[in-house]
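In response to reviewer comment 3 from the previous cycle, which asked for concrete evidence that the modeling workflow produces usable outputs, we include below a single protein chain processed end to end. The sequence was submitted unchanged, and the resulting structure tokens are shown without manual editing.
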Amino acid sequence: MSNIYTALVTGSGRGIGRETAILLSKKGFNLVVCSRSQNEIDSVVKEIKSFGNDKIIGRECDVSVSSQVNALVNDALDIYGRIDVLINNAGISYVRKLIETTEEQWDSTLEINLKGSFLFCKAVVPHMMEHNYGVIINVSSGAGKFGFEDISAYCASKFGMIGLTESLAREVANYNIRAMTICPGEVATKMQKDIDAQYYELNKHKMLHPRRVAEKIADMIFSDKEYSNGVSVDLPS
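The workflow returned the following structure tokens.
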């Protein structure tokens, strides 16, 4: 990858998304970052620019709303001309037993974690096909392969992410596009802390640092022979 490439990272205001955006920026990528929090996005844009890379677009975006997704993708294409790498990372989680999970909580979890990935793939893939190149990494979870109690909506969304990716991988195989998932174990993020603050404080030293996940994502982007189209990569904590 000797040319300058453009990467779009969702949920990049903090955690895995932020670390991924920072790492790719240091590797010379043009960046498109988004979050539902304008303050968080402003912060990551400021940090990346402090490294001397001003090729970054930061937008507030609800990934579950197609009009906002399409507007962001169109802005990125107008400015950079192409999107080469898509990292679908945005996600939320509620800790509730299934019988206590509200319909609203179920819907919002599936809409942000799974529908958001669908919408961004739908918007970006045609342009990748046109250029006959692309890398898509959908951030699933260890909870996308094993069901855990009290997070049924989250598990359903992350299991769904793997199915979506495997299906898409078959559809784009003839266009030099790789669609893959990464399934990290417990990661020391604000979302993990919000799930159970006491558990987080006791166990955060054993959790993955978000930067470690970002480094694996970068490996997946660059190591096309090791990480082939359709693969699901486990990253235990």
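The beta strands are 6-9, 30-35, 56-60, 85-88, 134-139, 177-184, 232-235. We consider this sufficient to address the reviewer's concern, and the full set will be provided in the supplementary archive.
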